Amino acid sequence: MELSNLRPAEGSKHSDNFRRGRGHGSGNGKTAGKGHKGQKARSGAPRIGFEGGQMPLYRRIPKRGFKCRNSKEIVAINLNVLEVFDNGATVDVDALMEKGIIKNPRDGVKILGNGELTKKLDVKVNAYSSRFPVLTEPILPDGLNSRPEMPLISSMLLRAVLF
Q1: Cα angle 106, 108, 114; round to 5
Q2: C-alpha–C-alpha distance, residues 98 and 117, integer Å
Q3: Does the global pTM surpass 0.70?
Q4: 10-residue block means of pLDDT along the chain (163 residues)?
Q5: Which helix (H) or strand (E) element contains residue 117?
Q6: In whole angstroms, what is the distance from residue 14 CA to residue 9 CA?
Q7: Cβ atoms within 10 A of the Cβ of 125, count?
Q8: Which of 93, 122, 97, 95 is nearest to 110 (CA)?
Q9: H or E stretch including 94?
Q10: Which of 18, 77, 92, 129 could anchor a disulfide with 113, C-beta 3.0 to 4.6 Å?
């Protein structure tokens, strides 16, 4: 028996989509499984989590943490990992998945500058570390080094343009 094979015991699960309150012969007649009287037997019973006016548990426990909606989950790869590719190979997200270096590219792949690379590779990923081109400039082909660079704009000039 494994976790993937677990199932409820035979006869322990029942369908919950039958009509209630249709006579005692159905086994769920008269009070329709709600028992006699009380707040939970009536229509308009309190919502789930209501504790009769006492501060409910989900409000007593402090909130912890924060999950930013705009954050991206980037997969980071060090330079020395790229040694598995042949000299002159094209390294892109598909090639990295094929070699088993990454399983899921998530929101993007970034090459970091840790380690050394001794081969000439054509690397085409979403992002590069600031040290990456400096470390690999002499051994990477022109395709990578000629990628368009962001123009350097000072924050003061940017403010003047925007406002």
Answers
A1: 115
A2: 20
A3: no
A4: 90 83 87 89 89 94 90 89 88 91 91 83 85 52 47 46 47
A5: none
A6: 11
A7: 18
A8: 93
A9: helix 93-98
A10: 129
Residues β-bridged to residue 92: 124
Tokens standing for residue 28: 């769920």
Residue pLDDT, tens place only, 115-156? 888 888 888 888 888 776 544 444 444 544 444 444 444 444
CA-to-CA distance for 52 and 39, rounded, in angstroms?
11
CA distances from 19 to 28, 32, 33, 36 (A): 8, 9, 11, 19
Distance of alpha carbon 163 from alpha carbon 155, whole angstroms: 12
Encoded tokens for 8: 């409820």
End-to-end CA distance of the chain: 67
- Look up residue 54 and give its two tokens: 């006492």
Q: Which two tokens stand for residue 127?
A: 């992002």
Compute the chain's Rg from CA coordinates: 31
One-letter amino acid for residue 131 of the chain:
R
The residues, ordered by sequence, that sit 6+ positions from 70 with a Cβ below 8 Å of its Cβ are none
Amino acid at 6: L
Element (H, E) at 110: strand 108-111
